[in-house]
Design brief:
This is S-Me-THD N-terminal domain-containing protein. α1 packs antiparallel against α2. This protein has 63 residues and is mainly alpha-helical. It has helices at residues 4-17, 25-34. The chain has a domain at 4-42. The termini are far apart. Helix content is 38%, strand content 0%. It is globular.
């Protein structure tokens, strides 16, 4: 489970490793602040072969 503290760390790490190409850290931190639930991570090896999965990402350039 990833809570707000862990997700803030993800935002800062992504901002550093993305060298600004991932957009504003402020936008990512705002999303974390607005979250109501923790994020559950799943190991793909634990999913049945018939399972469906979706990956979501925010893309684009900062204003």
């Amino acid at each position: 489970m990833l809570g707000k503290v862990e997700l803030e760390d993800v935002v800062w790490g992504s901002t550093l490793l993305g060298s600004g190409g991932g957009g504003s850290a402020h936008d990512g931190l705002r999303l974390v602040t607005e979250m109501e639930n923790e994020v559950t991570l799943l190991d793909p090896a634990d999913l049945p072969e018939s399972a469906n999965a979706v990956a979501a990402a925010g893309l684009g350039s900062p204003k």
